[in-house]
Predict the 3D structure of the following.
Amino acid sequence: MTATWAQGAPTESRYSGVGFEPAAEAAGVAVSGWARVAVAVHAVGPTPAPVVMRLDVASYAPILIDFRERAFEAKLPIGQYPSAPDSVLVHQATMAEGDAAVFPLPGADLDKLLWRVGFTCFGDAPAPWLIPGERYKLNRWPNFVELTHHMDHIRMAAALANAHYSADELAAAAGTDRSSAQRLINAFTLMRVVEASAVAAVPVTVPARADAPRSLFRRLREKLGM
Amino acid sequence: MAEHVILFAGPMGAGKTTAIRSLSEIEVVSTEAANSERHVVDKATTTVALDYGEITLGDDDKVRLYGVPGQKRFDFMWAILKKRARGMIMLVNDDAPDAVQTMIEYLDDFRDLYERGGVIVGVSRTDLGVGPGLAAYSAALQAQRPDLIVPVFTVDPRDAGQMRTVLMTLIANIEMRAMLAPAAEAVAP
């Protein structure tokens, strides 16, 4: 398809010529709200991909995602969208080579949206695309400066940067709770900043907890009030 | 008293002095002189020996923050400091010429720290949209050492909150890597 808008045109007119269609529902996965978004985004696969997506959040302006650019556009800061919207409809379109962007680039880093969606939308349960028995290791640090974060998230990411972990193992290694570890793995797999392995070894020794009394991390965290 | 030395490295004008000011709880000691290379970076003064700031932890520990001069002719100072360093925050301007290659060249000079996971890269001025962007830095680092996942963050050195996130990520990575080192050795053939 060929987009018909010009630079400087209102955003709505920029995507009005795009043939959005409802995103396919994943077989056997009944989800709604942000979880529906997460499943649809995960189904797109690794980026960049020639796909754009429009998220119609009830009572809010649409959110646009351009997977070719790993970018999105929203009228409001993403934290101001409801955590449990009445409904979210997901539409997507496949773009041809040379098709223009559907919003002014560079847009916002897609990780910002996926971090918020992935961390919360499945609660404490594993995301439906996760396979029991797999362990995860970072392949790229998410840019925490741009993400709403807590020090536990950084500590868990540091663990994943250096070894493969399941959610239970990650919670133990980073000295946090299983719920946070599972949510982080849900988000990181949606952002595709971790790789999964079914054969990675169990850590041979249980590492000392990063919040042990002499940990510089812990003392700095207290000092800086983080 | 225990000390934890953190270096701030990077080319002239990358924001090392500013970053230390954002983190230090004392007035930063700077040894600046007139910039004789204004054709390279247009700023009036530049660090010729080092900058120093600190964060005190209780009665017995200090995090010492050293900014090393950006000009390579002062690299004898780096040799002195890197022996004591626990980690390094590498700062680069995204809009500088050859920014990715400059980062790689600096990391070569701090290879020991880099290879033991003691480096984080802070890229400033990405908002201008004229540089290669974060992904280019990560890709260059992974091409060199695929087994090392180096944090690469955007950063504004003037922003204390952002600099704290950078510092805490560096410390978390160093400590987690050290804790896992015995496990890695145990599974090695």
